[in-house]
Specification:
Elements (H helix, E strand, L loop, with lengths): L3 E8 L20 E2 L4 E8 L4 E7 L6 H15 L6 E5 L22 H7 L1 H14 L2 E11 L3 E3 L23 E9 L4 E8 L12 E2 L2 H14 L3 E6 L5 E3 L5 H21 L8 E11 L6 H16 L13 H21 L2 H5 L2 E11 L2 E5 L3 E2 L1 H10 L4 E5 L9 E2 L2 H6 L2 H5 L6 H16 L5
Helix pairs in contact: 1-3, 4-5, 6-7, 9-12
Amino acid sequence: MAWKAGVAKVNITPPVGIAQAGFGARKEGCRGIHDELVAKALVLDDGRTKVAVVTCDFVGPDRTFVEEIRRIVEERTGIEGAHVMVCGSHTHSGPMWTSPIFWERKEEEDIEGEWAKLLPRTIAGAVLMAADRLEEAKIGFGAGEADVGVNRRRLNEAGKVGTIAPDPSRVRDPQVGVVRVDRADGRPLAVLVNYACHAVVLGADNLLISADYPGYAMRTLERILGDATVLFANGCCGNINPKWKGSFEAAERSGNVLAGEALNVLQEIEPSAEEALRMERRLIHLPIKAFPPLDEAKQVVEEKKVLLSQYGDGELPEHMGRLRWELMHAHYRVSVIEGLAAHQSEEDLSQQRMATEMQVLAVGDTALVMLPGEIFAEIGLEIKERSPFGRTFVIGYANDYGVSYVPTAQAYEEGGYEPDWAKVAPGADRVVVEEAVAMLSAVNGNEQ
């Protein structure tokens, strides 16, 4: 095969003052930049099929955002839009690109919206540059394990999940997936690292922009490898948090542990240009919860505000201790209803479902599955177990972050944060697994 590859990166660091994504407890925009955020594009071409893998230091990509990137890339490079994958590292110290949900900015300017207008074109530019830099290449794959993540759904004596808390006895996915792309002379051109763990070493008290532990992992590997570009793709970590939390030192520790294992795996990979590249994209539908009409949801917000205004910032009576959390959840529900109305068809909403997509990329006996939203670890592990490929990596937060959490059926029975805040209904996990396995079988030549 006549394999070629190109890689490029662009700076996507937002302005100081922008709202940060991920934590409802924040009540103001960021106060500074700790480390810069980057979008990186890897273009692969085996002479017949060309694909672009894009990784970004933000919480996750919006569907319309990805559609715009694909449009630009297809027009300018000829790479088919369905062959472009955009994923987020899921850092909670990165930016939002919509106005904050849980607090109101004093000034009227829309920092998030103004910044986000150019973001798709900026990120598409990384793909355009990578496509212009194609050179003879070889590709290889390997996998190891790292002990960075821990299940965050601790059960109480009643067998239910309350607040988010670590439970090392519960399921996690330790796999470190590594894709190595070499130049013709054997020097690494690009490396992609896949690992399943929320990028939340830094908590809600951090008001500095940062790529969190994935940023440290990528920078460490790039320093060691010299002129190679390292990309990070998160996995199925909807219920997985870092073991070490609360500081930049802890983020560096987590990143270094991950980088160290990736480096070990890299040494064992022997890239080649003998295998063909296969790619498939499929539209799917996931069942969603029954939500109230928008007017009713907004009314709940106003009622909670009135109740809370009686106490200001003071301590709430014991019987109203959850009121602030309930107001946050009410705000979120309004945003969910508005988002579904904006991005889903009337037909899909009438059938209580949402449309989204999945992708599979395969080379030889290795496959990469790209899933939308925040997928639970058990789902990714089942896909890997049932995959017809010898090695399967599963990437989350790909192409449609708006899907949000996809818990298991058991998680809905246990309760807790993720099922409470999920948009999808029980059964969505089975759709994701069965569609992924069917796609893997189809790409492998065994249509199901």
